[in-house]
Amino acid sequence: MLTDESNVVFKTSLSLLRPNEDSDWPNWIIETGLSESLRRLRQDISWWIENSGGQVLLALLVRVDRAAKKITIEKYFPQIRQGPSTRAQTVAGVIYVKRLVTTTVIDMRTTLPSVQGGPLILDFDRLVGRPAVALETNVIFDSARLVQMGRLVFMGIP
Question: Is there a domain that residue 93 lies in?
């Protein structure tokens, strides 16, 4: 039973996308926060990646800062913990930790909003749980699309 609830969980049909795996974990999750701190959101990301044993392939942290009119998006992948082996690791097996891949900041303070760290690329294989075939490709949010999303977010926040 899961003890943490992500704001958004996306799980694909395992029989189609992960035919050789028996997993109840989603391929990717989004942790969002308006009142939550970045520290708390990062702890939530760690929980998903560590407790899933790396089966959560992509984790997005989305922090909306109302006062600064900024949106921070951090993209994480699971990574096998590096370092010396301990007895606990030997018993538990492989331990996964979060690895920050990219940080994107959408700054909506001015009449000409800006994006730092874009574009935001969501890797197809991590979203769907298998390599892309034929015309399948990554999902790419360029600066214009990120600014558009920022406008929509702040239109809905008093």
Answer: yes
